[in-house]
Design brief:
Helices cover about 40% and strands about 5% of the residues. With about 180 residues, the protein is mainly alpha-helical. Strands 1-2 form a two-stranded antiparallel ribbon.
């Protein structure tokens, strides 16, 4: 995400930062970045390249900012790994449409049992992919160690975002 350039334009032309530090503008930059990354992946794949979006770049946001020597008003959001694929893996199964698309209101009568068939599809996908990889279902991933309560470096992200001068009007929970 890059709001530094916009800040520099405003400042160099004699304006203050205006709304650049608000959560609203932060989300606009976040959305633009996500769309740009997806379009980049689509373009790479149209050229016969493989691409993987890496959310893991924010595992240690402070170290990444330092390594990239990024100024305030910027934030690495996603990484992309691109290359020539040496295999043609099966596409990862996605949640069924009825679980992600709704009309007029969000159905709040969700039952975990409705994911039984999808869990089997995901488990089979991982099972067939590679014997040295995990073999689990979607619901086991959601209830696994990754989302258990514990402090990790990614938990510093809200503070890092604000130290970067972004979303300053947002008050994250202390603690």
């Amino acid at each position: 995400m890059d709001l530094y350039r916009n800040q520099q334009i405003r400042q160099q032309l004699g304006y203050d930062d205006g709304r650049l530090h608000t959560t609203d503008i932060f989300f606009q930059a976040l959305e633009d970045t996500v769309l740009a990354v997806q379009n980049f992946v689509t373009a790479a794949e149209s050229l016969g390249l493989g691409a993987v979006i890496l959310g893991s770049i924010n595992d240690d946001p402070e170290a990444l900012l330092a390594a990239l020597d990024l100024p305030k008003m910027t934030l690495p959001l996603l990484g992309v790994q691109v290359g020539v694929p040496d295999q043609a893996p099966q596409l990862k199964p996605r949640l069924p449409l009825e679980q992600v698309a709704f009309e007029n209101d969000y159905p709040q009568d969700f039952e975990v049992a409705s994911l039984k068939d999808y869990d089997q599809v995901v488990q089979t996908y991982y099972d067939l992919r590679d014997t040295s990889r995990r073999i689990d279902s979607f619901t086991k991933q959601i209830t696994g160690a990754k989302l258990n309560t514990k402090r990790i470096d990614r938990d510093k992200l809200a503070q890092v975002i604000q130290r970067q001068g972004l979303a300053l009007d947002w008050q994250p929970k202390k603690g």
